[in-house]
Amino acid sequence: MSTEKKIKFVAIDKTLFFPTLKKRVEQYFTENHKSRYADGMMVLKTIILLACYVLPFVAILAFTPGVWVSTLLWLVMGAAISGIGMSVMHDANHGAFSRRPAVNKWLGFTICLAGAGVSNWKWQHNVLHHTYTNVANLDEDIKDRGVMKLSPHEAVKSIHRFQWMYAFFFYGILTLYWVLLKDFIQYAHFIKSGLNRQTKRENLQMLTGMIVIKLLYLGIFFVLPTLVFQIPFNAILTGFLLMHFAAGLVLTVIFQLAHSVEGTQYPLPNPEGIIEKDWAVHQMETTVNFSPRNKWLSWYVGGLNFQIEHHLFPKICHIHYPAIAPIVKKTAQEFGLKYMEHQTFIIALRSHIAILKKFGIPRFNEGIV
């Protein structure tokens, strides 16, 4: 039996928080005659982000611009990868972009624009992260990575004392690691753990599909420019690495600011495999919003600065989070729950750096919950 099957949320004190909140949120959509899915502006944003990814690459191939212009174009592509991942792919793979499953399926494949596979992402994110948020050894987002310690329950190494300084370099190589290794490592791990319950034939098809997608991805970025458009390999390699560093840095920082900050909890199950909390209460205690009034940031990060609303209602398109946030906050306060938020991006970033420092101190109490 896999670890994921053993862990359960069993509330000692029953609460009507989530049923009450769900009723109020459903009432908001009914009374305002709104769909919980994407609207016309969301479709426009999708087109803009995809264009910001495709058109700069076309310009690089067609015009072979100088180093400074090329650098800018590669950075725009990196920012676009992040934007697509946070705003389009993320909603689609949660089933929140459209009421039509086929639309969500195909837009979910935009993860391939980062050279990554969709199935592993769904298991890592939709199942492990959303179910077991900040639970050590289950939530892949805080898993021990050797040089990075993102949970108080992992062993402290001497190098962790400096992780607040070098963390952002490793954040920057995340998507590159995803392209080259992570999908294959997760593929094996999820089968071994029992999370991936597909048949051998289905897994063979999945593995073949991952390999084909990655070969096509690398072929488009390296073979096409160098052999067809005669662009020097070093120029393409430099731009490719720059694009991925920008994408990885943005993606990782945004996700870390929601959970790996001061004030969040890191509960462990008891010996019977039970976390003695209501699941919705657990989400409130492990998740923090940031920059709630920054409309430009909200637009770009796909509402992931409203992470509380996303974790409670992942099947609602992110464009609605600013509207339902006051409902969530008011209901949480009525039930005596803390609604955590940082008012600015900088405050949230400082809090993340502070927790990196704290987790890297050898004498830090590892019994924290």
TrEMBL record:
Start and end residues of each Fatty acid desaturase domain: 67-341
Record-annotated membrane-spanning stretches: 42-63, 69-90, 102-121, 164-185, 206-229, 235-258
InterPro entries for this protein: FA_desaturase_dom, Fatty_acid_desaturase
GO biological process: lipid biosynthetic process
Entry keyword set: Membrane, Transmembrane, Transmembrane helix
GO cellular component: membrane
Alphabetized GO MF terms: oxidoreductase activity, acting on paired donors, with oxidation of a pair of donors resulting in the reduction of molecular oxygen to two molecules of water
Protein's name according to its UniProt entry: Fatty acid desaturase domain-containing protein
Organism (species): Dyadobacter helix
